[in-house]
């Protein structure tokens, strides 16, 4: 059980300062939580859009690749695919949202230059090639968003826990302590006032005797 503070003006000032600090902290946490939730909702909507785009491009690239294998022959498709340039490495960067590090995948955007002869391929093969590369960029973005959503959800949970501790425990505790000290100080002031009044009355009676 916490020790009750002595009713002094100094302790009253300390309690008031602690209460103001706790209320400010709660306000900042509430603002942080609101911003993070807004960011999370925005990313969640974008993730849903990307998933649909990926499904669409996967379907188109599969159909184009199937058509290419029919018109060119599967062996030719495999041989040409082996001559394609390797995927370039990406770099992980970060941006901060209310102190939360959000990942950003940095990579070179696709430059449609073929390492194979255009006479060796068909339109269907080229379409599959382009669709798959665009799908790669979407997968990067989706992975970026999913990691961001996980980190934001984790931070929101922590912020809610801290805000609840301030709102339900710390702030009421300081408000109670403040009220108790103020009541005791007011009572002391009334006692002192009546004591001084009685003393003054006695002095006046002694002077009249």
Textual characterization of the structure:
Helices cover 76% and strands 7% of the residues. With 209 residues, it is mostly helical. A two-stranded antiparallel ribbon has the order 1-2. Helix 1 packs across helix 2. The chain is rod-shaped and about 125 Å long. The mean pLDDT is 84.
Brief write-up:
With 209 residues, the chain is mainly alpha-helical. It has helices at 9-72, 74-82, 123-208; strands at residues 91-97, 100-106. Helix 1 (9-72) packs across helix 2 and helix 1 packs antiparallel against helix 3.
Layout: helices, strands, pairs:
Elements: H1 9-72, H2 74-82, E1 91-97, E2 100-106, H3 123-208
Antiparallel strand pairs: 1-2
Distance between the termini: 55 Å
CATH architecture level-2 label: Orthogonal Bundle
Number of strands: 2
Proportion of residues in β-strands: 5-15%
The name CATH uses for the topology is Helix Hairpins
Overall pLDDT confidence? 84
Helical element count?
Answer: 3
How many whole angstroms does the radius of gyration measure?
A: 36 Å
Please identify the top-level CATH class.
Mainly Alpha
Oligomeric state: single chain
Order of helices and strands: HHEEH
Number of domains: 1
């Amino acid at each position: 059980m916490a020790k009750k503070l002595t009713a002094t003006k100094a302790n009253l000032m300390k309690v008031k300062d602690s209460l103001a600090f706790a209320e400010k902290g709660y306000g900042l946490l509430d603002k942080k939580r609101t911003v993070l939730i807004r960011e999370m909702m925005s990313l969640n909507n974008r993730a849903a859009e990307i998933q649909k785009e990926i499904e669409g491009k996967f379907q188109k690239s599969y159909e184009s690749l199937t058509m290419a294998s029919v018109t060119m022959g599967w062996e030719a498709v495999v041989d040409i695919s082996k001559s394609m340039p390797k995927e370039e490495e990406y770099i992980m960067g970060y941006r901060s949202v209310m102190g939360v590090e959000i990942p950003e995948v940095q990579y070179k955007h696709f430059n449609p230059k073929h390492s194979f002869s255009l006479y060796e391929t068909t339109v269907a093969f080229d379409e599959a090639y382009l669709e798959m590369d665009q799908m790669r960029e979407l997968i990067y973005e989706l992975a970026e968003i999913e990691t961001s959503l996980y980190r934001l959800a984790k931070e929101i949970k922590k912020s809610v826990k801290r805000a609840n501790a301030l709102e339900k425990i710390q702030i009421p505790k300081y408000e109670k302590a403040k009220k108790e000290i103020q009541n005791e100080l007011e009572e002391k002031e009334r006692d002192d006032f009546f004591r001084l009044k009685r003393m003054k009355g006695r002095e006046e009676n002694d002077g009249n005797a």
